Amino acid sequence: MNVEYFIAKRLFTAKEENNTYTKPILRIAILAIALSVAVMLISIMVVTGFKNDISDKIIGFGSHITISNFTNNQSYESEPISVEQDFYPSITVEGVKHISTFATKAGIIKTADEIQGVVLKGVSSDYDWTFFKDNLVSGSVFEVNDSVKSNQILISENISKTLDLNVGDGLVMYFAQNPPRVRKFHISGIYNTAMSDFDKLFVLGDINHIQALNGWENNEVGGFEIQLTNFDDLDKITDEVYNLTPYNLNAQSIKEKTPQIFNWLDLQDVNVQVILILMLIVGVINMITALLILILERTKTIGILKALGATNWSVRKIFLYSAVNLIVKGLLVGNAIALSFAFLQKQFSLISLDPATYYMDTVPINFDLTYILLLNIGTVVVCYVVLIVPSVIITKITAIKAIRFE
Fold first, then answer.
1. Given the DSSP bridges, would you call strands 152-156 and 220-221 parallel, antiparallel or unpaired?
2. Distance (Å, whole) CA 95 – CA 104
3. Alpha-helical regions (H) of 129-195
4. Distance CA 329, CA 12 (A)
5. CA nearest 212: which of 342, 369, 103, 299?
6. How far, in whole angstroms, is CA 355 from its chain's centroid?
7. What are phi and psi of 81, to 5 degrees?
8. 186-217 residue pLDDT tens
9. Is the pLDDT of residue 156 over 70?
């Protein structure tokens, strides 16, 4: 049996303890730990949710890895690649979920009153529509057939409102080339991802149109898009895919194609680290204060324990156990606050955001059990280790003086 734990439990849960002046101090310490833990948990859940949502949206538009021609061309005009590659249609790299072909071409949508510059992204029959199905506002995605050209397209809600277009409407798209070309399309669906920079730019259509406009053969495409099962393996699999591609093709990860966005997302980790450090400091300071008050109030008890033969470390462990008990209570309250907020936000979107600034219309929440457990365990360990230092004051208390203490 752990004697120190038994004494701590009896000493600080006795009924008369409720009549001492330490009761409000201990409650404040528990509340401080609870608020600190709640803020840390909410920060992690919000930031990881934010990063995951933004990453998923960018990947939805451009996939994890893109294979295209080596070129200095900075426009949205694709250069042709033959589909007769060793890695297509089945790529032998572990972690790859899907591979499909695509092509892009800049164009202008013109209505009676408005014009809008866009990029037509042509997709083939092997395209994965999951992302756009999840973000559809109205209508539906269209079916692509390799043998029959489809005039159906998917536009964003941003473009729909700007040009006053709805599902089922026809539109005319102009392509600046020599000679200029015109195509008429019908809107099959409208999507909204809240990524305004992408929504106002991309229109999805049949790749056969781009092949015809550019004078390509049926076996020529603008590139290949590769989706992975795990984003964490992106860098490793990108290197493997690059080694499989011919010398005239380039494999780029989504991080390499949009470094500014992923660098911005990485900066969010710094904000979380600052919040964690500040909240830990607040919690530790309050726990040190509570521990010192416990020691001061129980000075006579310390003297009696030492007179009975208890060692300094044994007495210190009694008070450390009591402090850990307060920390655990604070953790339970803090977790309840954070998880309740996260659940309500996830279900009812209590806090909204400006999509133009944050690329989403509500505060995202990511429930990750690993982060929650690590934060709780880390808080207990850090607080316990830090409290060992102020507990040294117990070694300075002598039995005779402590018993006489008033």
1. unpaired
2. 26
3. 130-134, 157-163
4. 14
5. 103
6. 16
7. -135, 140
8. 999 999 999 988 999 999 999 999 999 999 99
9. yes
